[in-house]
Design brief:
Tetrahydropterin Synthase, Chain A, alpha+beta, disordered N terminus, 8 strands, disordered C terminus, three-stranded antiparallel beta sheet
Length: 307
């Protein structure tokens, strides 16, 4: 009976509602999804702003503290100071430091040369010389070289200078000229220990020049000239002695064999051309010629007999 009281179009009206519900229900989740995406994006933006706002004070603090990167190269070592106190020696590499509290001082450890120009030094025999010196060194311990000495290069210069004066003052000129390598060895022995106390390793120390005053140069030139002249005279005397000895031996040999003189004359004649050579007859040749002149027949008979 209830179904009879329903209007005719009741079934179609309910069906339209169901269809309407079926059509509009999917739109609600899309809207919610869009709203969720917007909310998530908004939250991300908020988090980003919070991160930026939190990072700005941190960056300002790092800037105030002086955070920076320091590079120490292969040919260097560095001294690290924390609040002004020595904190250690750093090897080559990169380091982050707070410059407000920490300082890095690089030190070059490559070999270097130091030159001591002409020094007026008095030798043991009272002659004033000018001696110049060249030394090679490198920093072995930066802590000692920088922290324990105001200027290690000046200290090394003065030490070499005083050692040079001490060595030259004990030697005579002849010994200095003959043994220049010995000066270098003595310099190394006298200064290496002191250089090690300053954190410096002395590699070599060599004498460059030994200069004499003008008068001494002339005197040495005359001595050398006299020595050379004496050597030349000695060589001439030796040559003359050898020549005389050879002549004496030749004369003795010719006395024993008179015919050697004639052979020598013939050899000289063969080697020369366009010259007049007078030959002397040997002893007894004249008597033979006279005898042949007096007895020509006998000489002819001897010839016929020989034939």
């Amino acid at each position: 009976m209830g179904s009879d009281n329903l209007p005719v179009g009741g079934t179609s009206h309910c069906g339209s509602r169901v269809s309407a519900l079926r059509v509009h229900t999917p739109a609600a989740p899309r809207w919610f999804r869009r709203r969720g995406i917007l909310e998530a994006a908004h939250q991300m933006v908020q988090m980003l702003w919070i991160t930026v706002l939190a990072a700005i004070p941190f960056l300002i603090l790092l800037k105030l503290l002086g955070l920076k990167r320091v590079t120490i190269y292969e040919y260097q070592k560095a001294l690290k100071y924390s609040k002004g106190r020595y904190a250690g020696t750093l090897n080559p590499g990169q380091y982050w430091i707070l410059s407000t509290f920490t300082a890095i001082v690089p030190v070059d450890v490559r070999p270097e040369f130091i030159t001591i120009h002409g020094q007026d030094v008095l030798s043991a025999d009272g002659v004033t010389l000018k001696v110049s010196l060249a030394a090679e060194f490198r920093v072995a311990d930066p802590h000692l070289a920088i922290n324990k000495n105001a200027n290690f290069k000046t200290s090394l210069y003065l030490s070499l200078q005083m050692a040079l004066r001490e060595i030259v003052g004990k030697e005579k000129i002849d010994a200095l000229l003959e043994n220049r390598a010995g000066i270098s060895t003595k310099l190394m022995d006298l200064t290496s220990g002191k250089a090690g106390e300053w954190g410096v390793k002395l590699i070599s120390a060599d004498v460059k020049d030994i200069m004499f005053p003008g008068e001494m140069k002339k005197a040495f030139a005359q001595v050398v000239k006299a020595q050379k002249e004496g050597q030349a005279a000695l060589e001439r005397a030796r040559g003359e002695t050898a020549a005389l000895r050879s002549l004496a031996n030749a004369a003795r040999t010719m006395d024993d064999n008179p015919n050697l003189l004639q052979l020598r004359a013939l050899q000289t004649l063969a080697d020369s051309s366009g010259n007049t050579l007078v030959l002397g007859l040997p002893n007894g040749a004249i008597s033979l010629v006279k005898q042949n002149a007096k007895n020509p027949t006998s000489s002819r008979k001897e010839k016929t007999e020989e034939d």
